Known about the structure:
The chain has 354 residues and is an alpha/beta fold. It has eleven helices and 15 strands. It has helices at residues 18-29, 45-59, 73-82, 97-102, 104-125, 160-178, 213-221, 249-265, 285-296, 320-326, 334-347, and strands at residues 9-13, 33-38, 64-67, 87-90, 129-135, 146-147, 184-190, 192-194, 228-231, 243-244, 246-248, 272-277, 283-284, 302-305, 314-317. Helix 1 (18-29) packs parallel to helix 2 (45-59), helix 3 (73-82) runs parallel beside helix 5 and helix 5 runs parallel beside helix 6 (160-178). The protein is globular, with a radius of gyration of 19 Å. The protein binds nicotinamide-adenine-dinucleotide. Residues 13-14, 16-20, 37-43, 69-71, 91-95, 110, 114, 133, 135, 190, 193 line the site of nicotinamide-adenine-dinucleotide.
Amino acid sequence: MECEGNMSRILITGGAGFIGSHTTLTLLGAGYDVIIVDNLSNSSHKAVDAIGALALRETGKQFTFYEGDVADGAFLRTVFEKNKIDAVIHFAGFKAVGESVAKPAKYYVNNLLTTLTLLNTMKEFGVTGFVFSSSATVYSDPGITQYDESTTRVGRASSPYGTTKVIQEWILEDIAKSGDLLLKVISLRYFNPVGAHSSGEIGESPQGIPNNLTPFITQVAVGKRDFLSVFGDDYPTPDGTCIRDYIHVTDLAEAHYLAVKRLLETNDLPEFDGINIGSGKGYSVFEVIAAFDKAVGKKIPYKVVSRRDGDLAEFTAKTEKAQKLLGFTTKLTIGDMAKDAWNWQSKHPNGFDE
Ligand SMILES: NC(=O)c1ccc[n+]([C@@H]2O[C@H](COP(=O)([O-])OP(=O)(O)OC[C@H]3O[C@@H](n4cnc5c(N)ncnc54)[C@H](O)[C@@H]3O)[C@@H](O)[C@H]2O)c1
């Protein structure tokens, strides 16, 4: 597709995935042109079609889609040759914590090679703005419950997946601070992204047994699984279950829009900024279940089982930096997250596979 108008053109790697698809819609809605590169390793043509139909309906605009591997330098170069890219949002990578323990090489190779190849290509084409999909997993300090950006990043995270995020942040920070590529990086450290687009037409489509709480709950609610396992109710929290900071994926998409805008419109940015993206408020597992009971209109069956190794009792974000630098605060509630996640799951019991 040829460039229309004067708006900036953003490359979204992994744009056919859960967070990338919602970010694509937000950016198109804000008037940006979007180029998606995705190899569909965790997505599908059906997902791309659904995102495209929704984009057209909601924004009157379309993105350009390239199916291919971000780690393939020759392929990526053709994408940069055909499109004058102004900034990049890098989502492409593997994210399943459990699988990363069983297959660490798969995670180190894909997550690091995509980032390195992207950096090489950006250097070649003089593209300097980089928004990175990082994670709260880069922090780990059992001594505190609410994390700000000055919390020391761990050397080794609690899984190989998490460690790839730590290493990618180091790579990005070192290169940006060296001045070599004139790179400006905003690394968004997501807390717990949940929910789905309010239309119920796109959402999270995990393969196999979901790693995360809310897709598991919706799969129980839709009858695909018998019950939810609650890992421990004897933590030092008010109801004994673990507390996490959940953020609606639509709010998260807005944070990416604000980060890109900052990269494109602000002079004298620091070379590298890590910014927490969460709501600042924590909900316990039992509180999340109660929100879904309400959204679904029936009780979600669960069983309390023993604690999982490595789970912290409470883990939430301090959000002042996001507010100050990006003007970002979350708008959607835990009730919205449950309602939208359930709307998506009930309309699409098998995700995009049906
Ligand atoms: N969802 C979360 O809970 C969460 C939390 C923190 C950070 N993140 C990070 O955010 C990013 C997006 O997460 P998501 O939940 O949307 O995941 P997702 O799996 O839905 O999306 C990632 C997309 O990247 C694509 N991809 C993977 N490797 C690729 C490659 N080599 N070349 C091209 N495309 C490739 C996949 O096909 C998929 O569409 C990931 O980097 C993830 O680690 C996610």
